[in-house]
Design goal:
The chain is an alpha/beta fold. The chain contains twelve helices and ten strands. It has two domains: 144 residues, Rossmann fold (3-Layer(aba) Sandwich), CATH 3.40.50; 114 residues, Rossmann fold, CATH 3.40.50. Strands 4-3-1-2-9-10 form a six-stranded parallel β-sheet, sandwiched between helices. Strands 6-5-7-8 form a four-stranded parallel β-sheet.
C-alpha cells in the first residue's frame, strides 16, 4: 500500500540539506518537507536541555505537516537529544546509529575517527554506539568548530590553502591515531569531502551519515509498504525560522541545486 505523505527532515540550520540531497537521490519519488531552524542556529554550542527543547519544537512543526516519518538531519540533535523522540507518533531516524553501523562495516584496522561539533563530540554518542557494535574498536574523536563557517562562506575547494590548512590542523588526531575510517558527524562536513580526502588519502573511508540514513529509510519504507507510489510529481517544500535570505546560495552548495528564496517559507515556532 502506497503512502504519499511526505518525509519530514529538520536541522538546526541548512546543513541538513546534504541529507536531503541523499534522500532525494535514493528515494526520488518521495515528497519532502524540510525545516531549518535558521533563527536559532547553531545548536552545537547549546545545553542539552535547550537542544532537546528546540528539537521537540522542530518535530512538532513537521508533525503539523502530516509527515510519515521524521529525520533529525542534525549531528548535534542525533547525538544529544535523540532520546527525546520516544513519544513521536511516527518513525524517527537520527544520524548516529546508522553512521556508526556503516563505519563498523567498512573498517579494516578497527580504528575509527569521528569529527563533529563540540556538543556532538562531547556527547560521546558515536563512540558508545561504535563500541556497542565493535567492543574492541579504537575510537578517536575531534571537534572541528571552523568547518561549518568555512562551508557557509563558500570555502570548501580542496585546492584552497585556507581550507586545506584548516582541515589538516583539525584532522591531526585522526591521522596520528591511524584511523582507516572517519565519520563525518556534522551535516555540513560532506561538502568538505574532497578536502578531507586530500588530507587523509584514498585509503581512509569517509562515512557520510546522509547516505547511511537514506539507505535505512529506503529499507524501512519498503519493508512496511510506506513508499510513495510515484504516480504524481514529488513535491519538495522548504521552511526556515528566520528570513530565507541566502537560502538559494546555501542550497546550491549543500543540496546541489538552486532553490529560489521566494519559494522558501518562514515560520514562527514560538507557539509550539
Amino acid at each position: 500500500m502506497a503512502d504519499s505523505r511526505a518525509i519530514g527532515i529538520f536541522d538546526s540550520g541548512l546543513g541538513g540539506l546534504t541529507v536531503t540531497k541523499e534522500i532525494i537521490k535514493r528515494l526520488p519519488d518521495e515528497n519532502i518537507v524540510y525545516f531549518g531552524d535558521t533563527g536559532r542556529v547553531p545548536y552545537g554550542t547549546r545545553s542539552r536541555e535547550t537542544i532537546q527543547k528546540y528539537a521537540a519544537q522542530d518535530e512538532s512543526f513537521l508533525l503539523k505537516k502530516d509527515v510519515k516519518l521524521i529525520i533529525a538531519a542534525c549531528g548535534t540533535v542525533s547525538s544529544v537529544a535523540a532520546d527525546s523522540s520516544g513519544n513521536l507518533p511516527v518513525p524517527f531516524f537520527e544520524m548516529v546509529t546508522h553512521a556508526a553501523a556503516a563505519a563498523v562495516a567498512v573498517t579494516k584496522n578497527k580504528k575509527i575517527g569521528v569529527i563533529g561539533t563540540s556538543a556532538t563530540v562531547a556527547s560521546g554518542s558515536h563512540k558508545k554506539e561504535i563500541l556497542r557494535l565493535m567492543p574492541d574498536a579504537d575510537v578517536t574523536a575531534a571537534a572541528c568548530s571552523l568547518f561549518v563557517p568555512l562551508v557557509e562562506e563558500g570555502w570548501y575547494a580542496s585546492d584552497d590553502i585556507v581550507v586545506t590548512q584548516t582541515v589538516k590542523r583539525y584532522l591531526e588526531p585522526i591521522v596520528k591515531a591511524q584511523c582507516d575510517t572517519l565519520i563525518l558527524g556534522c551535516t555540513h562536513y560532506p561538502v568538505l569531502i574532497k578536502a578531507i580526502s586530500a588530507v587523509l588519502g584514498d585509503k581512509v573511508s569517509l562515512i557520510n551519515p546522509g547516505v547511511a540514513v537514506a539507505e535505512a529509510v529506503a529499507y524501512y519504507l519498503g519493508k512496511y509498504g510506506m513508499s510513495n507510489s510515484g504516480n504524481a510529481e514529488p513535491t519538495h517544500s522548504f521552511f526556515v525560522s528566520d528570513k530565507p535570505a541566502s537560502f538559494k546560495n546555501q542550497a546550491s552548495v549543500l543540496l546541489g541545486e538552486e532553490i529560489d528564496d521566494s519559494k522558501v517559507e518562514q515560520v514562527d515556532l514560538s507557539s509550539l
